[in-house]
User: Fold this.
Amino acid sequence: MIKVKYFGMIAEATARSEERINTANIKLSTLIKTLVEKYNLKPYTLNVAVNQHLINKIEDVTVKENDEIAILPPFAGG
Amino acid sequence: MKKKKTVFIEGPVTPQFIADSIAKHQAKYSIGAHNIFLGQVRADKVEDNTVSAIEFSCYPEMAEKKLEEIREKAFEKYNLTCMHIYHSLGKVNVGEICFFVFVSAPHRTQVYDATEDIVNMVKSEVPIFGKEIFENEMHQWKVNNN
Assistant:
């Protein structure tokens, strides 16, 4: 089981702020591809964080049991 | 001086809050220079619409980690006595302050560069999101250009 969190315009597009998904030990890129297709996120610029750390190359990361994945739109602080 | 501090404030950063922050530092006699950056909500025009407020949200757990890293980097790089970062969450109307960075050091040379560095890091590295609300109740999501 993993937790996926959505923020800002991404949460608006998915119509939810978080969900639990019954999966683990999959490639992060596979998970993101699935979510992008499921919620039509293709038009959005997004960043991905795993356990609060921004990921540069999603191809290199494997999602593990209990990980918290965050799909983040561009930052707009300040 | 380095300790975990409250960053997020519900609603605008008020002029009174800023004044109180300055007053609190008058008991620290090693300080010779303060520098302050204030971010204010602008009434941007997008076609026929005008922004009337920004509603801020964040990813709290990640934002706190990032802000702690920024704090550590700033203290490593500059000779600071103390620094404070405050950012609004929730609705902030145009003309109100949503971002307050307060840097203090023994001498002024350090505080200018440190302030700019900290402001840039907060804008680019901290997961804060802003919904620009227009006068007609429509909205768009704010994206930082710089």
User: Anything to note?
Assistant: The longest strand of chain A covers residues 2-6. The mean pLDDT of chain A is 96. Chain A has two helices and seven strands. The helical segments of chain A are 8-14, 28-38.
